[in-house]
Design a protein that fits this description.
Largest sheet: 5 strands, mixed
Oligomer: single chain
Number of helices: 11
Number of domains: 2
Shape: globular
Order of helices and strands: HHEHEHHEHEEHHEHEHEEEH
Strand order of the largest sheet: 2-1-3-5-4
CATH superfamily of the largest domain: Periplasmic binding protein-like II
Helix content: 40-55%
Strand content: 15-25%
Radius of gyration: 30 Å
Number of strands: 10
C-alpha cells in the first residue's frame, strides 16, 4: 500500500533558489496588475489665503488661525503690520491690486468707506479694542475682516471671518486678550439660512442668491409665501413658543405688529422692510445677504 502511494505521489524537491525565484515572479505579476488599477488624483491644496493683520491682534489671531487650521487644514499666509504700515499700503497707488487677494484685519474707522467699498466686498466685525474711546471721546470703530473682491478662495476667507466672530470660536481667544466681543453668528462651517420671501421677488432673488451662496458657502432655503400665509405661519410658530423654527429672514413684506416682537428690522429692499429673527443664529450673514441684494437690485 505504501509502495503504491509513493509511486503516484512524489514529494517535490524545491531548493531555496527556486522558491525565491517563484516569489519574485508572483510579486512582479502583482505589481503589473496593481499598476493597471485606476488611481485617484491627489487632493489639491486650497489656494493660499493671504492675511494682513493689525499688530495689536497678533496674539489672539495667531491662536485663532492655529485653531482653524487644526479643524479644517486650510492654507494661510499671515503678516502682522503696524497700523501706520497698513495705512501706507492702503493709501498707496497699488492699494486696489495689493488688497484684491487678501483679508485685512484692522479697525475699520482707520480707512474711508469709499476706499473700503472700492476694494473689498465683505466687512465682518469681530471685536472692539478694550480702550474703545479715542482722545476726543468718540468711540473707535470695530476690528473687522475685510474680504477682497477678487480673492481666489472667497468661501474659505468668509468662513474664517465667521469663525473669528463666532462666540464659541474666535471670540473666546479675543476675550482672553481683553478685546470686547461682538454678537457674532453661531458657528457652522456651512450655515443654512431659512427665508420667507414675497413671491413677487422670486425671479430677482433666485438669481442673486445663487451668486451669494457660491461666494459665502452658505445654503439658502427660500420659501415663497404671500403676506397672509406668511403671517399665519409666523403667528402659529410664535404661539407654540418653538421660536427656533422661525425663519432667519423675512424679505418683501409690509410691517405687521403681530410679529414685531419676534423680528427686528435690518434695512430695506426696495420699498419693503427686511426683518431678521430676534432669536436667529445667523444675523450677520442675513445682513450681508441684504447688503448683497441691495447692491444688485
Amino acid at each position: 500500500m505504501n509502495q503504491e502511494f509513493n509511486t503516484v505521489f512524489k514529494t517535490p524537491k524545491f531548493t531555496g533558489v527556486t522558491l525565491s525565484l517563484l516569489s519574485m515572479f508572483v510579486l512582479a505579476a502583482m505589481f503589473v496588475v496593481w499598476e493597471k488599477f485606476p488611481k485617484e488624483p491627489p487632493i489639491p491644496l486650497s489656494p493660499k489665503i493671504k492675511l494682513l493683520c493689525d499688530q495689536r491682534l497678533k496674539v489672539p489671531v495667531e491662536r485663532i488661525i492655529r485653531s482653524y487650521k487644526n479643524e479644517y487644514n486650510t492654507n494661510f499666509e499671515i503678516e502682522f503690520l503696524d497700523l501706520s504700515d497698513l495705512k501706507e499700503i492702503f493709501q498707496g497707488n497699488s492699494a486696489e491690486e495689493s488688497f484684491s487677494q487678501v483679508v485685512l484685519m484692522a479697525e475699520v474707522s482707520e480707512f474711508s468707506e469709499a476706499d473700503i467699498d472700492r476694494i473689498f466686498h465683505e466687512k465682518v466685525p469681530f471685536a472692539f479694542s478694550a480702550n474703545s474711546k479715542r482722545q476726543r471721546g468718540t468711540p473707535s470703530g470695530p476690528f473687522v475682516c475685510l474680504i477682497g473682491k477678487k480673492i481666489v478662495n472667497a468661501e474659505e476667507a468668509i468662513s474664517l471671518a465667521r469663525y473669528i466672530s463666532a462666540p464659541s470660536r474666535g471670540q473666546y481667544y479675543l476675550a482672553e486678550e481683553s478685546f470686547i466681543g461682538v454678537d457674532g453668528d453661531r458657528w457652522e462651517k456651512k450655515p443654512i439660512i431659512s427665508i420667507f420671501s414675497n413671491p413677487k421677488l422670486k425671479h430677482k432673488l433666485s438669481q442673486i442668491s445663487e451668486t451669494f451662496t457660491k461666494r459665502e458657502g452658505t445654503v439658502l432655503e427660500i420659501t415663497y409665501k404671500d403676506f397672509i400665509e406668511m403671517n399665519a405661519t409666523i403667528s402659529l410658530i410664535a404661539k407654540s413658543e418653538a421660536l427656533e423654527y422661525l425663519p432667519d429672514l423675512l424679505i418683501g413684506y409690509e410691517l405687521s405688529q403681530n410679529f414685531m416682537h419676534t423680528f427686528e428690522s435690518i434695512g430695506k429692499l426696495g420699498n419693503t422692510e427686511c426683518l431678521t429673527s430676534a432669536h436667529g443664529k445667523h444675523k450677520m450673514t442675513c445682513k450681508r445677504l441684504l447688503n448683497y441684494h441691495q447692491k444688485k437690485f
